[in-house]
Prior knowledge:
By secondary structure, the protein is an alpha+beta fold. The chain has 15 helices and 26 strands. A hairpin with a 5-residue loop joins strand 24 and strand 25. Helix 7 packs parallel to helix 9 (321-331). The N and C termini lie far apart (109 Å). 44% of the residues are buried.
Amino acid sequence: xxxxxxxxxxxxxxxxxxxxxxxxxxxxxxxxxxxxxxxxxxxxxxxxxxxxxxxxxxxxxxxxxxxxxxxxxxxxxxxxxxxxxxxxxxxxxxxxxxxxxxxxxxxxxxxxxxxxxxxxxxxxxxxxxxxxxxxxxxxxxxxxxxxxxxxxxxxxxxxxxxxxxxxxxxxxxxxxxxxxxxxxxxxxxxxxxxxxxxxxxxxxxxxxxxxxxxxxxxxxxxxxxxxxxxxxxxxxxxxxxxxxxxxxxxxxxxxxxxxxxxxxxxxxxxxxxxxxxxxxxxxxxxxxxxxxxxxxxxxxxxxxxxxxxxxxxxxxxxxxxxxxxxxxxxxxxxxxxxxxxxxxxxxxxxxxxxxxxxxxxxxxxxxxxxxxxxxxxxxxxxxxxxxxxxxxxxxxxxxxxxxxxxxxxxxxxxxxxxxxxxxxxxxxxxxxxxxxxxxxxxxxxxxxxxxxxxxxxxxxxxxxxxxxxxxxxxxxxxxxxxxxxxxxxxxxxxxxxxxxxxxxxxxxxxxxxxxxxxxxxxxxxxxxxxxxx
Length: 533
């Protein structure tokens, strides 16, 4: 080997040795410096176990969502814990096959390898007030109701809970390092408070579900504040499984409490109010012959009953059509419609951006061009369409001595300390009719509960005033029978009114049979609940 070649080989050997020792020193440096921590952190994994939205509360800060909670257990599988899964049911593998979420078990104790947390179900099987609350999509975005209207606020008030653990580069959990739960605002109490009373809402839903009403609604309103205390629409939908209700012919997504339906005889007290406000003397009587002929049209009382000579009390008790036709023709369309509008009919009610009632329909006075059209108006037929929430507000006006207020649903915004930081207030208030007018009508509605069509709604434990209605719809079933819309509207207690209650059955038979008993059940449940509080 030449001298030149030996020299080159020696140089290459020296370079190799320098490079080798340089790499060796670099590895030792990384292992004994902060770089080792950085390298390890690159293989830290986190799995989101649950996400939440802000609470929706009733008026007393009782939760209407996030109420159903199930204890879950997270277990890192290793030589210490691998046998713990034996005998524990409902195991769900989470993503990487190394950490499990299982239903809680009293025999399982927390350790560095075992953590517990509460799984929060947004709605649950026993959800109340679902047509008001609405629902979310799979990504927890608000789609309907309060969930949609206050989506940003409810998102910001929510949070998540995660499990974290270290793995090798190959994805295996590093033995002996344990797992960590991180709670980022997961169950914060922040959210929104509604005017709903949870106990009354539950009583209303129970009364409706135990009745023959399959498609209908109920609204309970505070007659002094006009706050909505309960609102129910049936049939229900399943907020946890929206797809299951999409093809339901009963239209479960329709909020019937905010939808318009034919009025019928619950409108008659407002004909009387218009007449009294415009000078009618209430001691005047009309003669009912069972029918009233106007031109070629003949209007009849129910089953063509002949009621004879009647005053206002008797006409309300018997729900006499001809009495109110006579009274309405004497009063005139313009005065009737103006009074009805003062009670809130014919205009929508905005409870929030995604909960707005139909406006219904009260015909313009100029469009009532014949006595026949006016006659229909006088007993709530023809073009009159009203919503349950409108009717609850109108009967609240009667109970509130003639003062109308804009109905409301929102109460407060709630912070993370469960304290209110913003309060909603209704601004619209005015006198619709005089106190004396209300006293006259309310007395007739009270007598109706004792002697008239409202008797099936009367209670022995709390006094009330109210009116039935059985409205024609112009729709017919497969047997040719007309489908009727039935109502009961009233308030209680009669002497010192607190709540107005409206029940509507979209496919009814007779109001005194299908709606009046529901009214009775509700007012008794509320009265007994208040006595026991």
